[in-house]
Fold each of these.
Amino acid sequence: MNTKHLISIQILCSHYDIEISFVEALTQMGLIQIEIIEQNQYLHQDQISDLEKIIRLHNELDVNLEGIDIVFNLLEKERELRTELNILKNKLRFYENY
Amino acid sequence: MEFRDYYKILGVPKTATEKEIKTAYRKLARKYHPDLNPGNKESESKFKEINEANEVLSDLENRKKYDKYGKDWKHGEEYEKARRQQQQQQQQQQQYSTDQSSQQDFSKEEYSDFFESMFGGGRSSYNQSHRPKFKGQDYNAELHLDLKDVYTDQTQILTVNGEKIRLTIPAGVENGQVIKIKGKGGLGINGGPDGDLYIKFNISNHTQFKREGNDLYQHVDLDLYTSILGGEIMVDSFSGKVKLQIKPEAKNESKVKLKGKGFPVYKKEGEYGDMIITYHIKTPTNLSEKEKELFKELQKMNAK
């Protein structure tokens, strides 16, 4: 099985100084998706940014996992609104001086 | 270099207790944390500012020193000492440049000059000491292009961390669009993956065309006679001059569509939007006597 872009959970736990139970809790909350290959747990490297963000919000702002889930949902909504705003701004630019 | 009022930054009085400082800091951190304000430069610098203030005021020794010398830091003995120390330290700067008119614009953790003068540079910063390092830093950059540049695929050579990256920007990219270039950010640490490079496109338009999505719009002046009798004119497009047949009795402000003469559709090779042309009929001026006579004749005919 190809594990090229996958990073073992053990490695992540040691680098980020987090417990395996914390990673399991994140998986249960649906905040990250763990892949299991030959009984080893991995995280795809595309999800590392999310994991780092979760750790920062948790450690630096004391946000619990439910709070982080809410933050992620709101940030996603904000991202969608930003995209929409950009489209509307470009449209507005079209009508200016026309 | 300006004096920084750390009490003001955290919104606490000079007599604030440790607990009050901590509470004020945490409240502001929740408001300005970069993860909660993605892409917001103002929040990012505010966050750095409050971290700096907290680092000074939450540390008893730092706070003492700041209270004693802060206002007169320019003359303080401590300041001189710190300044000498700082001169010995060379700051490493990451370089990022492109061969076109782009802007260097990626985040970097840093302290104000004021802080570094008083407490010395190169200290372990809030972020460095608290944040684990594994995945490389993500870089954000802005690329300024002209509308005519993005009519075709663009190749740009970017230099990131001394490495040259050949970047192909697909034709039809939108103003404000952000693309992610995987693995071209900061280098990963301890075997971690490299960060990503995010490029935002700022597309300015200095052409006669207006763009809306993949369609282009332009006004075309039409003389009265062609508008009445019809004819053939040449109009501009990004792919060169295009022949346009004018049907007789064209109305002012009426629109015609030139299919496929608009802007390329992003990442769909060979697909183009349309060009929408609005006629502006120019009425003749400085008429000769003969012309006036003929117009009068026409007027009479219509009056019947």
Note: The radius of gyration of chain B is 31 Å.
Amino acid sequence: MKYKRIPLYFILPAVLIYLSKTIIPILIGFYYSLYNTDGLARFIFVGLENYTRIFKDAQFWSATLVMIKYSVMMVFAGQLISLLLALLFVKRGAINNIFRTLVFLPVIMSMVAAAFIWKVIYSYNGPLNVILDQLGLGFLKVGWLTDPQYALASIVVVGVFKGVGVGMILYMNALLTIPAEIYESANIDGAKPFSLFFKITLPLMIPGISIAFITATINNLKEFEKMLILTNGGPVDSTSTLGFYIMEVATNNLWVGYASAMAVILLILVATITYYQNKFFDSRTVNY
Amino acid sequence: MIRLLAALLVIIFFSGPLYVTLIGAFKTTTDIIRTPLSLTRLTFDNMIKIFSDSNHNIWEMYRNSILLTSISVCSVLIISPMAGYYIARSKKKRSELLTMFFLVGMMVPPQITLVPMMSMFYKLHLVGTLWGVLIVYGLNVFVLILFAKFIVTIPTALEESAYIDGASTPGMFYKIILPLLKPMIATAIIIDGLNTWNDFIQPLFLFKTFKTITYGIYVANSVENADYGYILGFVLLASIPIVILFLFLQKLFIDGLTGGAIKG
């Protein structure tokens, strides 16, 4: 660099805060995972015992399963709908703009706010069931959040409501990066809209798709806030994801050491899945 | 046409809940149950109840939310451009290392940091103090990385000539770089402001006595069990400020919240 080196104090505050709120807590978390502790007074060293307990914990495995179910549902439903919305409303225009605003509105609301709206809507006497009744579809009424069969899917709906706005914008921008000439030359060659989409549009969107997929996956695997507000782990733990189970164990039972060990496992899981997702998308990236 | 059907579904799914909330906030619970969609029998009862609730003072909650958000935005605006500048103008290896360093924070599950932070806060008596707030909200890693990436795109020519003219680094930063960062600053205010205002988990676990309005929604529910009107009223009051801001600054919001991910 031709000019003076930038003084360290430019970055010091950021680093200090980051250490305090992220790095040090992570390290403390690792440390706690080796103890039987409540985070305040009780500290009994147990080594890797927490970790071995995890593998024998039936609820850990069911929570992991629920987490995977939730993430798969969320990512596929969410990404598909985001993509469809992007395709529908990508063109300029006042009407499209209104629709895009509508879709994006839930994104800026607080998660608590959105969750409570749906909590009211989903309740047995809530608007959803009442409207179904009024439409003569009363037989479709269920306990959306109280029936183990439907609770998780109901939460996915809330996730879609809150999240697809961002996905839609991401996919829209990915669409807009495709140069118009490619479509023109494809049309000249007589391509049909369907194959046009699958063979040209979609492959060229892969960088955008990968960012959307990967961030969505990471966020969904860690998810617990919706479950906390909507079902508190759900009828018979049907909505207790790993993320939720960890929070429950840590804050309800104060088994902080055990919870920290599970959090470490979750971290490893998230990192691994992210790595392979990244590889998958990298290998599929095309350049025309 | 499929487009029409899709548009209809979008309207129902995305605005339905919002409509129900908007009018539900002004209806009694029995009315919400009987006629969730109609505009008849609107009442201010819920609002009166909320504003006169002595256990949960909504003005205090608004004040706390505004306080937290202001502190956060100010802090983020002070430290992020400087740190971003440092990273942007560092040699490749150092900047890559720093970027990775900060990216870790974005990938880590909050569960792993939340409980240790709770312990930290209680043991160090940080609950409800300014330091506590600064630690939790003083830095926004996403914003920091956005600044770093943005500043990288600024050509160094201006700084180089300023240096030759004998300018100091802080002076250079203040007079040359900062004015160029204005669009980014707007984005940062929106991203961090939104993040802090909407945050619920951290106030719930770390700032118990310092109630924010999002915390208020959560507590309102447990107290007034199944009083839908009350709950929706609270939700409305918590969301209206941002929704109004959003409707006026749409482009800024959308670009800010997604622009970082696109420019990659």
Note: Chain A touches chain B through 89 residues (CB under 8 Å).
